[in-house]
Amino acid sequence: MQSPLTAPQQRVITWIEDFIAQHGMAPTYREIQKGLGYRSLASVQFHIDTLTTKRLISHAPRKSRSLKILRPSDGIPLIGAIAAHSLVETFPDQERQHLELSCLPKLAHLSQHERSEHFALQVRGDSMTGALIDHGDVIIMRRETNPRAIRNGTIVAARKNGATTLKYLYRRGQQITLQPANPAYEPTVVDTSVEELEIQGIYVGLLRGLV
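Request: output the structure for the sequence above.
Response:
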């Protein structure tokens, strides 16, 4: 799964987009350095290389003004399935298909880069029925770069030991409880001082009867 843009990366790509819109051509590395106040060209090169790896920018080596912004798909990637019962389903790392924006009116007003922070998963299981999330639903998630900022009671996709589940998150000190929304299932308690838990994203909404 593509990692989210950092604030400096977003700043670079926005500046390049604005420059191209204003001048009708791509900036040189020196112009980016001056425009963003970097002390050296190495900083520019680092960000360009990172954005190229993320397939958000392309450029021809040793050719001036060859930077191009690669427009991501206007849709949201449906990247696989997630378990809504226990930590048993693998969270895939390859995108399979895209959901068109016509299916996602609440995301249509977002910028392309904001939309790139969202992805979709198909739910397997019934442990979140109390949150009106049923087996077969397609859920929309948003990547969260600061898991500590997630409030208790937020629905998250949480990954542990290579498997991912959809649950309410509750944090108390180093202990995280992944709480189902179905009394037939037990919560999962993770001591983050000895176990690693990765928050893949936070729940935004769902589509029903789509796939």
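The two ends are 21 Å apart (CA to CA).
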